[in-house]
Amino acid sequence: GNPLYFQSARNVTVNILNEKTKVLTRLVTGPQAVEAHSQKFEVKTLSGKLLFSADDNEVVVGAERLRVLGAEGTVFPKSIETPNVRADPFKELRLESPTRALVMEAPKGIEINAEAGSLKATCRTELKLESKDGEITLNSAKIKLPNLPQGSSSSAGSRQKIYELCVCPNGRLFLSQAGTSSTCQINTSVCL
Fold first, then answer.
1. How many CB atoms sit inside 10 A of residue 54's CB?
2. What are phi and psi of 76, to 5 degrees?
3. CA proximity to 177, closest of 160, 157, 156
4. φ, ψ (nearest 5 deg) of residue 116
5. Which residues on neighbouring strands pair with residue 97, listed in sequence order?
6. DSSP calls for 137-152
7. Which pLDDT tens digit goes with each residue over 139-171?
């Protein structure tokens, strides 16, 4: 009914041998680390549910949730594959690549949803929305393009606040003061 203690000033090693006295597994507990040498390492709950396993091919975390508590987050030097990335409640979620590109790929689509707030995408150079075979739909009660360039006014002294939206051959948009007919052709210098 008493616990069994192993004490050592250096380490304690437990070896499991086969019938030819070859070491199959080894557990070494020392002052610097605990090492397990085997073909596979597993940690299970009392009920037998797998929590963690590691072998030459993969490492499996079987818990319902994996939490990484480091202040700097988690670094994945290659790629990560997961069905769900979620922040703790009321915490910010950031997917960041400080020096390279951030790529999200899925054969059946990617959905980014902000049910209770805004969605913001910012970048330093270009923001591209591209659909190779389909279409791009902007579905909103209001669509604003506040910083579009304006063509020069054709009639002097006109205070009219109605503009037409013009498209350059390269796809650039600009505003041109509306007239009785299209004024886009007059202001094509904006396209240069």
1. 15
2. -115, 105
3. 160
4. -115, 15
5. none
6. ----S----TT--BPP
7. 888 888 888 887 766 555 556 678 888 888 888
What pLDDT is stored for residue 15 in this prediction? 95
Q: What is the pLDDT of residue 104?
A: 87
- Distance, in Å, from the CA atom of 103 to the CA atom of 76, rounded to the nearest integer, reads 13
How many other C-beta atoms can be found within 10 angstroms of the C-beta atom of residue 52? 14
Selection from 156, 188, 154 nearest residue 172 by Cα: 188
Instruction: Determine the residue type at 113.
Output: N
Domain ranges of the chain: 6-61, 148-191
Q: Which residues of the chain have pLDDT under 50?
A: none
Q: Alpha carbon of 10 to those of 33, 34, 142: distances in Å?
A: 11, 12, 72
C-alpha to C-alpha distances, 58 to 39, 40, 63, 81, nearest whole angstrom: 12, 10, 16, 13
